[in-house]
Amino acid sequence: MTSRRASASRLWLHKHxxxxxxxxxxGNYHWFWHRLxxxxxxxxxxxxPFSLGGGYLCVAAMVPALCLDLDGTIRYSKDGExxxxxxxxxxxxxxxxxxxxxxxxxxxxxxxxxxxxVAYGFKTPLDHNAEMEAMIxxxxxxxxxxFIQACFFHEEGTVEPYNHRSLLRKPNIGMLAVCEVxxxxxxxxxxxxxxxxxxxxxxxxxxxxxAGIEFQWAREFFCRQ
Length: 225
Hints:
Elements: H1 2-23, H2 29-38, E1 61-63, E2 65-68, E3 75-77, E4 89-91, H3 95-104, E5 108-114, H4 117-120, H5 125-137, E6 147-151, H6 174-185, E7 188-190, E8 196-199, H7 202-211, E9 214-217, H8 218-221
Parallel strand pairs: 1-7, 2-5, 2-8, 5-6, 8-9
Antiparallel strand pairs: 3-4
Helix pairs in contact: 1-2
């Protein structure tokens, strides 16, 4: 019985696939047909299983991203140069309003942060998570972020397994690539050509250049004196 339903579904798809293809022009016809037979066609940009197989296919919305460095860009330590505990975290004035302005305009908001202190033993991943929670709690309107990616690696560190070179670490674009994958899973294709990267350090600028993304310095983006 299941086989008959699957066959009937395949016939219906084969009859209508050319119409679908005109609004979903991915690759060639045969590739698209193969994907439709074995994947799910999402609803409202969300992935949903299709009855003919266990894979997924998503009709995704294409959106720009606002890529934000964290330390020195949107937050700072109240007690020193580096944030070492949740109570250290403070947001710069005007950050929340500006970030939400972009999110309300349809941007995906990404946090992209090097946290090499983990590799040096100054903090643990759990400490980092607590600092993230403290930061998010400071946003009065709620978290504006869709995704936050952190890199704990530094090749000069002392703590395994983080004391090795990683392509995640800025100025490499690894964290941006991870965000692209996660966004795709959530039903979005990031339009990098219309995205912007905001940071306060040379590695932020170089990361944006490596990815071909417009870069803005934090002091200018947030209109700081």
